[in-house]
Amino acid sequence: MNYRTLSSLLALSLLFGCSSSDEIVPDVPASELYTDAQSSLRSGNWLTAVEKLEALDSRYPFGPYSEQVQLDLIYAYYKNGDLPLALATIERFTRLNPTHSRMDWVLYMRGLSHMAQDQNYMHNIFNIDRSDRDPEPVKSAFTDFKRLLQRYPNSAFAADAEKRMHALKNRLANYDLASADFYLRREAWIAAINRCQELQKTYPDTEAARKSLEIQLEAYKQLGLTDAVARTEELMKLNPI
Fold first, then answer.
1. How far apart are CA 201 and CA 189, in angstroms?
2. pLDDT tens, position by position, 116-143
3. Are 92 and 11 within 8 A, CB to CB?
């Protein structure tokens, strides 16, 4: 099942409510349930907040708290690590409220949720380099933050989004570097050169771009292209690591 299908199914489940939350959360007035949900959010009890917000969403889909409940669900899902649900809720909210005053925040949370999909707790603990990991969530996050800066340059989240884009750019550059090294080790010289040159063109101001010159140099040597070797060596002098 691909991501879009999963998101659609999750969005449908949100639209029709979550029976498990209805069973767990007492049947109290919307105002009381909303107050309880806010208390859970403030205390960082994300799972309880999710249960109460889901109950509100299913019981009072057109109530006075409807839009705020959706925004709170996005945040609670994200903090609870329910990233597909966060993204599905963002998709739903954006579709229903395209001109909402907090769309900059929604777009920011979309970027954060995509970015979080690239992280792995065990890899972080053991400091395992996974530059070769699928970069699609990173590309999506980069696009989200870029769109935020383009649409809402004065947003309170713009500065942080720009910083995150810098980190994401390095992540994507390192992925291309790992791919070029993969081709080099398998003696696919042309593929290694092509990936290096694409990296240098797309992310010229990264350390990975400078490192890729070493791979490019070795591939040219293996092909016996002396002129290309000389040009690459000159580039390495101009762009030291």
1. 18
2. 998 765 455 455 555 667 789 999 999 9
3. yes
